[in-house]
Amino acid sequence: MDCKNEKEIYKNNTIEWFELFRANVYMEMGLQDISVRELSEMADMSVSTLSAFLYGNIRDMKLSNAIKLSKSLGICLDV
Question: Considering only CA atoms, which of 16, 70, 63 is closest in space to residue 39?
Answer without folding.
Answer: 70
